[in-house]
Design goal:
Elements lengths: L1 H7 L6 H32 L3 H12 L5 H10 L2 H25 L4 H30 L4 H30 L1 H21 L17 H9 L2 H16 L3 H12 L4 H21 L9 H18 L5 H27 L7 H14 L1 H15 L1 H30 L23 H5 L24
Helix pairs in contact: 2-3, 2-6, 2-7, 2-8, 3-6, 3-16, 4-6, 4-15, 5-6, 5-8, 6-15, 7-8, 7-12, 9-15, 10-13, 10-14, 10-15, 10-17, 11-12, 11-17, 12-14, 13-14, 13-17, 16-17
């Protein structure tokens, strides 16, 4: 038992990563408190408008179209400093919204402006944080650290909404936003307490880290294109839970803020279990794993739309949360562990752009559907489209294997299979000694909490 626990949490043996996780747990909990408070405030100001909530979500995620340039900054500059500045800026924005909420003068446009500005900050913070994890632990511990990152994020999703629901009922949304503003200081403190000499930094990319090169690299890798396309389709139609959960609570089950927090907590608890389940992963997942996890998620989301009562919704949202994060982690690991380290910053920035950048369109569509056809229609559509995408991907994989005669996985650009051999966390090109056009780039790499985990 002790050996199993040690294996599950092995990346926490790294001091800098422990500091990072401690700060992120506090900060992410504050973020999820803020999400609940903000959504509840928007619904209160607009009389429960799904369209208004969709606009806020779209504004927050639209600036993530700049994520590719954020990935370029992460490849060129000191990531610890970029993260420090980004978290301080996010704290200031949270404080700027907390003040009018506390004084009773908050208006919808205040929320719109802050949501857009926070999206601008996240366009830099998200790819930088993703790449920073690999600098903390190195390639051998990257899969475990990635899974633990999903775990701590979803611990925050369990604690944050539950606490937010109670605080909103007791003291109002303004105080919740104030707590979130203070929570960013935990991340900043953790970053500044780290030992820079223990970071596993590669050579800076400098002016050679061009966005276009990263896009061409992905286009030439068939084994990367499939999970990227699956993430795009499922992200657009199936992963709109930041919008869906408050609408489900308020318009379907007519629940109060505390019950809304419970729905969010159930979804987060399922995601947490999925994150813990993937800590045992030690290598790159096969294409089949990505496809089956997408199929399973689509099925359970469709069934969730049918939930006859609040108790059934809690159980089904737990299963949906599990399926959402398991799919996102499988796609994340297949993409990042199959990428040349010289390109991982830009590859994972593209992954983030597609996963989170699809939110503006997805949230507007989901908001419109919820307002005209009811909240359940969004779950039905998202689930059925996810199932169709998974089946299409399975068919494409089968045709690819038939053409290449492969039996061990999707073929990579160099002719290797999707299952890598050799040093854990390295791409097939590294193992074979051909590190791609840009050559060996040290121990750079990516790891990211994904959109089912929310904005941070």
């Amino acid at each position: 038992m002790n050996r199993r626990l040690a294996s599950t949490f092995r990346s926490l043996s790294v001091r800098n990563f422990r500091l990072f996780v401690a700060g992120q747990v506090v900060s992410a909990a504050g973020t999820w408190m803020m999400v609940v408070a903000q959504d509840w405030l928007v619904l209160g100001l607009t009389g429960g408008s799904g369209t208004a909530l969709g606009v806020v979500t779209a504004l927050q995620f639209t600036p993530l179209l700049l994520t590719l340039y954020g990935g370029r900054l992460a490849d060129r500059y000191d990531k610890r400093m970029l993260l420090t500045v980004a978290n301080l800026a996010s704290g200031v924005l949270a404080l700027a919204l907390a003040v009018p909420a506390l004084t009773g003068g908050v208006e919808l446009w205040h929320i719109w402006v802050c949501a857009f500005a926070l999206g601008m900050v996240n366009a830099v913070e998200v790819p930088t944080r993703m790449s920073f994890v690999s600098e903390l632990v190195g390639p051998d511990l990257l899969p475990n650290a990635s899974a633990l990152s999903g775990a701590y994020f979803n611990i925050a999703r369990v604690a944050g909404p539950a606490l937010a629901g109670a605080l909103i009922t007791a003291v109002g949304t303004g105080w919740v936003m104030l707590v979130n503003a203070a929570s960013y200081l935990a991340t900043v403190a953790g970053l500044r307490m780290m030992r820079p000499g223990e970071l596993l930094r590669g050579a800076p990319a400098g002016g050679q880290a061009r966005v276009g090169d990263g896009l061409r690299y992905v286009r030439e890798r068939r084994d990367l294109v499939m999970p990227v396309l699956l993430v795009a389709v499922i992200g657009l139609f199936g992963l709109n839970f930041q919008l869906m959960l408050p609408l489900l609570a308020k318009t379907v089950f007519h629940a109060d803020a505390a019950s809304f927090g419970l729905l969010t907590t159930a979804f987060a608890a399922g995601s947490l279990l999925a994150a813990l389940a993937t800590t045992a992963r030690r290598g790159r997942p096969a294409a089949r794993t990505v496809v089956l996890s997408a199929l399973g998620f689509g099925v359970v989301e469709t069934v969730t739309g049918w939930a006859p009562n609040f108790a059934a919704a809690v159980v089904l949202l737990f299963l949906t949360g599990f399926g959402a994060l398991y799919f996102a982690q499988a796609a994340n690991h297949r993409i990042q562990l199959g990428s040349d380290p010289a390109y991982r910053g830009r590859v994972m920035a593209l992954y983030t752009l597609i996963l989170q950048g699809s939110t503006p369109l997805g949230s507007l569509l989901a908001g419109w559907l919820a307002e005209h056809l009811g909240a359940r229609s969004v779950l039905y559509l998202g689930g059925l489209v996810s199932v169709a995408a998974a089946l299409a991907a399975a068919g494409a994989e089968r045709r690819t294997k038939g053409r290449t005669g492969g039996t061990g996985g999707t073929k990579d650009r160099t002719g290797g299979t999707g299952r890598t051999k050799g040093r854990p966390g390295h791409a097939p090109e590294e193992v074979s000694g051909a590190a791609g056009p840009a050559g060996w780039a040290g121990q750079g790499g990516k790891s990211a909490p994904v959109r089912p985990g929310g904005p941070r």
